[in-house]
Amino acid sequence: METKSWGRFFGSPNSFLIKAIKNNWHPYRWNDNWIENPIFKSEGMKWWDEAEVHWRRDNRNYLVVDIQETIIGTKATIFFRSGKSIELRKVSRMSWEELLEYAEGNYRK
């Protein structure tokens, strides 16, 4: 399989890298603002940012232990300090108040 780049063909990603090294290719200087672009944020990271708005940063950081996402970001699970966990797709059906009760371990439904 061939990869087309800048009008030239390379046999594989490895050959592309070898050619880049031989031609003294230099990467762009990294800009930290690129990672903050909302286009690149996963659903889990979007939820994390939104949780700060609704729960305040300190409270969110205390309650949320981890957010695990699949490598391609199609499924995310939120893990809380209370020992409970919930899939991100289920969170969208709850209010922020209900989710806070759930995260604290007090939610009954």
Can you describe this structure?
The chain is of the alpha+beta class and 109 residues long. It has five helices and five strands; from the N terminus they run ββαααβββαα. It has helices spanning 13-22, 43-55, 57-63, 88-91, 96-104, and strands spanning 3-5, 8-10, 64-69, 76-80, 85-87. The strands form two sheets. Strands 3-4-5 form a three-stranded antiparallel β-sheet. Strands 1-2 form a two-stranded antiparallel sheet. Strand 1 and strand 2 form a beta hairpin. The termini are far apart.
Rounded mean pLDDT is 85
Structural class: alpha+beta
Q: Low-confidence segments, ≥5 residues, pLDDT <50?
A: none
Question: Separation of termini?
Answer: 54 Å
User: Main sheet, how many strands, which sense, barrel?
Assistant: 3 strands, antiparallel
Care to count the β-strands?
Answer: 5
Strand order of the largest sheet: 3-4-5
Task: Write the H/E string, N to C.
Answer: EEHHHEEEHH
Radius of gyration: 21 Å
What general form does the structure show? Answer: elongated
What fraction, in percent, of the residue positions are helical?
Answer: 25-40%
Beta-strand fraction estimate: 15-25%
The number of helical runs is 5
Short description:
With 109 residues, the protein is an alpha+beta fold.
Give the topology, please.
Elements (H helix, E strand, L loop, with lengths): L2 E3 L2 E3 L2 H10 L20 H13 L1 H7 E6 L6 E5 L4 E3 H4 L4 H9 L5
Antiparallel strand pairs: 1-2, 3-4, 4-5
Helix pairs in contact: 2-3
Q: Keyphrases for this structure?
A:
109 residues; alpha+beta; 3-stranded antiparallel sheet; two-stranded antiparallel ribbon; 5 helices; 18% strand
